[in-house]
Amino acid sequence: MKFWWILVLGFLPGGAAADETPREAQALLEKMAEASQKVNYSGTFIFQHGGKVETSRIAHFVNPAGGVLERLETLDGPAREVIRSNDQVTCYLPGSRVVLIDPRGSRQFPVQVEQIREIVQHYRVVKGELDRVAGLECQWVALLPNDALRYARRFCVEVETGLPLQSRTLNEKNQTVEAFAFSTLNIGGSFRRELVQSKYAATSTKQNWRVDRTALTASDSGDSGWVVQNPPPGFRKMMELRRSMSGKKGTVSHLVFSDGMAAVSIFIEPAAKSERKPALRHQGAVNIYSSTIAGHIVTVLGETPAETVMRFARALEPRANAAVLR
Which CATH number fits domain 216-325: 3.90.76.10, 3.90.1170.30, 3.30.200.100, 3.40.190.10? Predict the structure, then answer.
């Protein structure tokens, strides 16, 4: 799960100029990416998005042989617990007595090692000043987009491990649209099973909570029946499938694109008799655009400016139509 929070402090404390040494800045980015595969940590963080503020507790352990165990629990608002074991994510919702199981889960860290080459083609990486977050020294690094299709991202990276301690996502007006920061954090230490065990697993079994496994029924044939002709520059297809979704009849086509940092998801489902008028809304850093295309309801959502998700919608068409045009 990816989480960010806003603090009133600016990106470069004291207004000092940034050190724009590309090699040093990229080294920080690489260190941050490697932290997801090497660092054990536990602590409390605050996440702000769409005018909402959430406090959560997290414990994250990495197996040296490869593999991750993680537990995340919200501390305010509706109770929610997320257990991650490698790629499988199980979410417990005690308020509705539901267990959601997803074999793919969500992107777990802001940067993946293998994506850095893509990222530096579309963002300028800038090294900032030293700072302190949760009592730990960290170094600021910014990813500034080369065009208007992406948001700027800013991270304060713990100097020893590369773990991001604070992060901000800024829109084209330089306004913070999503942010995250640890308030307490313990880095390192050996594996402690009790920190990643679910408090609801036994209860959900005894009390017969509803288990939603619709995400497990996805077909990985690689053919959604749809194609994006000329996607926005820098975005490439990461996933394509048909999947069942709770409350939906039949299957929904699902495509995911990424530029190495920002992700865009496209969902296509058969439309009712009446067409849906195009609509654009946002939730924090995520813009959501929906419309009707070729008798189907299309919903595009991405951690990008609105123009990017609308471009994806305009470029989407049934694969059969694309084949005829070729």
Answer: 3.30.200.100
